[in-house]
Amino acid sequence: MAPKAIIAPSILSADFANLGAACSDTIGHDADWLHIDIMDGHFVPNITFGAPVVTKIRSHVARPKTANGKGTFDCHMMISEPKKWVKEFKEAGCDLYCFHYEAAVNSTAAEAPAEQSAKTTSPKEMIAYIHAQGILAGIAIKPDTSVDVLWDILDNASNPTEIPDMVLVMTVHPGFGGQKFMASELPKVQALRQRYPELNIEVDGGLGPATIDQAADAGANVIVAGSAVFGAEDPAQVIKLLREAVDGRRNRL
User: Fold this and answer.
1) What DSSP line would sit under 131-181, residue for residue?
2) Do 22 and 230 form a contact (C-beta atoms < 8 A)?
3) For the chain, is the Cβ count within 10 Å smaller at the N or the C terminus?
4) Are 43 and 103 spatial neighbours (Cβ–Cβ below 8 Å)?
């Protein structure tokens, strides 16, 4: 059986003038996590916000009592130097630090924003480092990246600390909200679910009532939805619909 549904509204679509209350209200509408998109203007062309904003909204949302619990801050790190920022975001209130595979294979091993290093890092090293800080680790892939790059990482039974707690399959090109859902990415989700029945598999981009059935059929259980939730007249009803679509398929996967 696949894991239960986790609904993680993306605060990129929230009212930035009232962000703390928007985050608190969304958890009150029965969201499980908050998906926090961090963009640096290098790995992706857009810029969003940094650790100080995460610190501020953390004060509006209680920390989860258990791993993957309600109130988890799922920080999607669309940044070119992901290792540099792990400690900063942990201190800010991040519970799950999800970096991009494409960044980890092209970045340094520096462990602080001002630090320089001639050494490079790797996805496995990144995952182990995140776990060593006491938080969950996720790994994301862009639409142009084959899911095959993840097999060696996920099959790494000899060192469990290097295995991610979640995989994020992007169903849009990262960098901007409001893009059209790319159903072409769902075979990646299907392949992951077939090989790893208990893995948390997240999809991000273009998710809402019109596309949730496709994602749920493929095996996704962590659902990121931005405008579909924050722009809804009844956010709680949308969250309920997304959850029921996923949980209604758990026994079939």
Assistant:
1) HHTTSEEEEEE-TTS-GGGGHHHHT-TT-GGGS-SEEEEESS-TT-SSPPP
2) yes
3) N
4) yes
Q: How far apart are CA 36 and CA 10, in angstroms?
A: 6
Nearest in space to 192 (alpha carbons), one of 159, 151, 135: 151
Active site residue 213: no
- Of 15, 155, 204, 217, the active-site residue reads 204
Distance CA 30, CA 100 (A): 28
Q: What span, in angstroms and rounded, lies between the C-alpha atoms of 220 and 21? A: 29
Q: Name the catalytic one among 25, 32, 37, 165.
A: 37
Q: What is the pLDDT of residue 1?
A: 83
pLDDT digits (tens, 9 = 90+) for 75-96: 999 999 999 999 999 999 999 9
- Find tokens 């998906």 and name the residue: 35
Average pLDDT value for residue range 17-41: 98
